[in-house]
Amino acid sequence: MESATPERQMIYLNVILVYLFILMGVGIYKSRKIHTQTDFAVAGRKLTPWILVGTMLATWIGTGSILGNAGKTYETGMAALILPIGGTLGILILTRIAGKVRAFEKFTVPEIIGERYGPGARMLSVIALVLAYMVIVSYQYNAGGAVLTIILTDANGNALISSEMATILAAAFIIIYTLLAGLVSVAYTDVGNGIIMTVSLVIAFPILWIKAGGFGGMEAAFTGMGKGDHMQFWGVYSGMDIINFCLPPFLLVLGDANMYQRFSASKSARGATSATIVLVLAVLIIELLIIASAWVSSSMITDAANGRHVLIYASRQFLPTFLGAIMMTTIVGIIISTADSYLLVPATTLIRDVYLNYINPSASEKKIVFLSRLVVLILGLVAYAVSKGFAESTGFFEKALYAYTIYGAAITPALVAAFFWKGATKEGAVASILSGTIVTLLWKEAPFVHTLIPASLYGNLDEVLPAISVSVFALIVVSLLTGRAKGGPDIVAQ
């Protein structure tokens, strides 16, 4: 990869360091205001709609977007503009759920599932959530390490820091920042991340467009690379590709515990609904800007190694120095704002759904906050161990889809049914969570699966469609066979 001059490197590094110091300062300041688990986990239920929009936007737009979708855009071109459809549709449905979640006043998704379906379903959802979110956090570490490594590459193309050390530094910052003040600091710094992200993308896109020479320049460049199909929207992806790419983010966001945690942190049910409505448009705009910027930049990048991190490379090579620094800071902010949220949620879940439910229900608020921070630390280290296994195995796009499927196939059907289908039973929920998790984990890993499915189908079909199909089938069939759940609150009616 071509490198920037030492002077530009220092500007990039200094801008990012200033940003990180500000984040840490906010975390330290807000940590003094954390006294209860409500403060730590749901920001005291005091977030306004605009703060909610900012924190939900910054959480959803993560490495899967800025590196995953951008990397897929480098591979396939204009057709990648279809990728945000799944997530956007999922958020659209969430506008019907947000107010109900806030009115229910729980802390975690497993709590909601437990209230509706009982303790068995609750504990299974804890396992699926922690498993999926550790994978998500792990590749955020990898992404942070990748950014740092690229910035610290000398004029000869030699990295001044190893990728392993860069990943360790990224992980350490994310862990420390998250455990300081929980959702209070995360939410407010997410707003800053969201503003920086939006402004930098809006400014960067026309500059990249001009440098690429518009449609004419891009068409000539792609043709010269033998990538004429990069100017085509239709016909690049098969129907199965679209399902494989769009269904996992749809399922994740529809049941995403981060979103539900933020609904619970809202000042009111109406505020949660209003924020989610605005979020639909905000996510669509930002996702399309990311993909469009990656598409335009791809026409100026011939080396596939550089294309893996197309927006990082474009920030360094094609943008004015200061704007490039801001873009790199945006990428860092996106990684952090996603990682801290996906680290905080499983920590809150383990405290609420395991420790307080089974071990020490009468624990003091001081002890709960201390243990919450300790669990953040432990889970952060677990995620780092996972990141080492994922370091070179697959790309960010594939990692994201896999993690989304683990969660979406296991938890989302039963969770959504809790709000919309009175006939869902605890037995159906347990069957759904178990079957969705097992099919996801076995689809690519268990050799015997290969013998049960035609090779042509197996090779083109990712785990998401069989996993969600089995999960939904189990929920419906088992629920119909066992009759309506008894004894729990009727969330549907709220």
CATH topology call: Sodium/glucose cotransporter
Structural class: mainly alpha
Rg for CA atoms: 22 Å
CATH class: Mainly Alpha
Low-confidence stretches: none
Major sheet description: none
The CATH superfamily appears as Sodium/glucose cotransporter
Give the averaged pLDDT, no decimals: 84
* First-to-last CA distance: 56 Å
Tell how many strands the DSSP assignment holds: 0
Number of helices: 23
Under the CATH scheme, the architecture is Up-down Bundle
Order of helices and strands: HHHHHHHHHHHHHHHHHHHHHHH
What does the model show?
This protein is mainly alpha-helical and 494 residues long. It has one domain (6-392): Up-down Bundle (Sodium/glucose cotransporter), CATH 1.20.1730.10. The chain contains 23 helices and no strands. It has helices at residues 6-31, 37-42, 49-60, 63-76, 85-94, 98-104, 109-117, 119-151, 163-212, 214-224, 239-255, 257-265, 269-298, 304-307, 310-317, 321-359, 365-390, 396-410, 412-420, 426-443, 447-452, 455-460, 464-482. α8 runs antiparallel to α16. It is globular, with a radius of gyration of 22 Å. The mean pLDDT is 84.
